[in-house]
Give the backbone structure.
Amino acid sequence: GAGVSQSPRYKVAKRGQDVALRCDPISGHVSLFWYQQALGQGPEFLTYFQNEAQLDKSGLPSDRFFAERPEGSVSTLKIQRTQQEDSAVYLCASSLRPAWTDEQFFGPGTRLTVL
Amino acid sequence: KQEVTQIPAALSVPEGENLVLNCSFTDSAIYNLQWFRQDPGKGLTSLLLIQSSQREQTSGRLNASLDKSSGRSTLYIAASQPGDSATYLCAVYTGNQFYFGTGTSLTVIP
């Protein structure tokens, strides 16, 4: 596709449910990032993949959060036993080359609401 | 931990005015700095990327400067238009992750 796509665009979950958020990066992009953006705040880094390797997951807020990119393209962010504080927009971004050299292209985000 | 601050938090200007948005960061050991715009309910659009070895980048009516030693960057928008209304975010890359500011919400009044 022409840009980064994310699905679903909106997700409502009951507290305690598991959710899976999908990111389709731009074809051929090496780097993929996940961010969490709370209302009125800037995005906060969650995790970074270079191809299929998860090079940094220091931003994941708890062990309920898990991300994977098994074939180096599509990525999934999974949140287990969702809590109300997980409500946020989850943004995915990709870049052609490693993170330190290249601009990021963002998807539209998935807005997660946990009731 | 790197902290990124953007001032002002909100700005309202009449159409046609030139304006400057500010971004400051606490740790000067960065690889690059990127400016984005975010429209309501949408993702981020990259505007300009400045590598740590560069001083400025220009794209159309936008000019971004970087003073790494003082931990500051500015985004200059010339001849503002109503379509420029959005939230502008800066982000720095430190070698392991990106840190974003909280943004400046810009409104350009026709």
